[in-house]
Design brief:
It is a single chain. This protein has about 240 residues and is an alpha/beta fold. It has helices at about 10-20, 30-40, 50-55, 75-90, 110-120, 130-135, 145-155, 155-165, 175-180, 185-210, and strands at about 45, 60, 65-70, 100-105, 140-145, 165-170, 215-220, 230, 240. It starts with 7 loop residues before the first helix and ends with a strand.
Length: about 240
């Protein structure tokens, strides 16, 4: 009231108007279907791996939360880096022509490796250092090493997505902070862990659907479990063996 100089009643009315303006608009299932039909290329972000894209019916789904799980050393972080590069590419090349938010919980992100992947996979596009610099400037790295930090970061992503024109969100990985903080042998920890994962998944799903962008979260599986599993809300679980 001090800021606006308005009465309590007028401030309440103003808050209601702002809330209505910011709230997601209602849309029918038909409208959602027609949007996808008009611009089918925006439905998926291709991984450029033919076998994987075929299994996923086009790639990593936009507007959906996708979980990628696999044993250590199978290439999950390399996949994250590759997808980051792909999201920055022009739409004409199958990219999303946008920025990337990369939440790193394991300090595994490598800028040098990112540049290597970009130059190796797309040598005809990244022909100058300026293009490589432009790509790296579009990827925003957030090192978050605890569950609280990860959750707080997720809660602030909406503004970041809008201001930075983000087209892909990656978390590498949720399981890392969960393993460090929750002892599964303790019953109380199981409940806290479930609440943390449910809250995080709910927020990420909202962001994916609201901004129609792919959101990918990466998990760890024990070494005894060999396959990589990619699970999206829009597909059944997909499995592929490591090469």
């Amino acid at each position: 009231m001090k800021v606006t100089g308005q009465s309590y009643q007028n401030v309440q009315k103003l808050l209601c108007k702002v809330s209505l303006a910011c709230a997601p608009k209602m849309q029918t299932a038909y409208e959602m279907k027609m949007k996808r039909a008009i611009n089918p290329s925006s439905t998926f972000l291709s991984t450029t791996l033919h076998g994987l894209d075929k299994a996923l019916h086009g790639g990593v789904a936009c507007g959906s939360l996708t979980e990628v799980t696999g044993p250590p050393g199978c290439g999950k972080t390399q996949f994250c880096l590759m997808m980051s590069v792909l999201a920055t590419l022009p739409i004409s090349m199958g990219g999303l022509h946008g920025a990337v938010i990369y939440i790193d919980t394991e300090s595994a992100f490598g800028a040098e490796r990112l540049v290597e992947i970009a130059g190796h996979r797309f040598p005809n596009y990244f022909v100058t250092e300026e293009k490589l610099f432009s790509m790296t400037r579009s990827i925003h790295l957030y090192p978050e090493l605890t569950c609280d930090c990860v959750l707080k970061r997720i809660e602030t992503l909406e503004e970041e997505i809008i201001s930075k024109k983000v087209k892909l969100v990656i978390i590498d990985s949720i399981a890392s902070v969960v393993r460090k903080e929750f002892d599964m042998k303790l019953q109380g920890n199981l409940l806290e862990r479930s609440n943390f994962l449910a809250r995080g998944a709910s927020l990420l799903k909202y962001l994916a659907e609201e901004f129609s962008i792919p959101v990918s979260s990466f998990f760890f599986l024990p070494p005894s479990l060999r396959p990589i599993v990619i699970k999206s809300e829009k597909h059944e679980n997909r499995k592929m063996k490591n090469r």
